Amino acid sequence: MKAHMKNLFIFDFDGVIADSLLLYEELVKTQLKKIGSPVITTRSDFLDLFDGNFYASLRALGVDMEAFNNAIMAAAPEIDYGRILPFDGVLPVINTLTKDNTLLVISSNVSSVIRTFLSRYEFDGIFDDVLGADFMLSKTKKIDHAVERCQALPDRTYYVGDTVGDIREGQAAGIRTVAATWGWHPKRRFEGVGADYIIDSPEGLLTI
After folding, report:
1. Rounded CA gap, 113 and 127, in Å?
2. What whole-number distance in Å separates Cα of residue 103 and Cα of residue 85?
């Protein structure tokens, strides 16, 4: 089949589009404590989970993933998602990119939460699809799926992430990686990781 000739931009959600660090840090700490696995106590502990795949990091710390996921799902109805806001400047940049490119969201968050947020903040119709934790847990596998489904070229596919783990999962998928330094991991944390691009504001996406 003929390759898709548009660029494919794949966006992480939390930390790239949505400013949600405080809410999810509280949620994860609370639910881990609830299931008897208080493996993180500080923000540093929390952010360390994202040096690789979030779920793999928890599993490596001995967390019962079935119990954790059940606790998260049980807590979901009580979460005040209104606390999550878009980062300044993201929407206009994404609106510009969508004119000539294909855009997707790939995240460790739940697809329904992401879609509700996108609708609330006028991102409707911008993304071709949202692949959350309910689709696959591995971002690398989700990226592979997206590249194949969109008939995209790996060297014209960009994964925009805000953690070292995002960059590593994008690299494992053989695509171009973009480190967004306004999110959860600071710029210095990306040193030596080998991201193809490091950008300090959403506008930087327009120069790639």
Report:
1. 15
2. 20
Please check whether the domain covering 7-19+86-207 is classified as CATH 3.40.50.1000: yes
Coil, strand or helix: which one is 36? coil
Is 80 exceeded by the pLDDT of residue 3? no
Q: Which of 82-86, 121-125, 162-166 has the highest mean pLDDT?
A: 162-166
The CA R_g of the chain, rounded to the nearest whole Å, is: 16
- Please compute the mean of the pLDDT values over residues 121-127 and round it to a whole number: 93
Q: Which two three-digit tokens encode residue 27? A: 């949620």
Q: What is the pLDDT of residue 4?
A: 43
Q: Is the pLDDT of residue 64 over 50?
A: yes
How many angstroms separate the CA atoms of 110 and 102, rounded? 21
Token duo for residue 189:
């944390």
Distance CA 97, CA 77 (A): 33
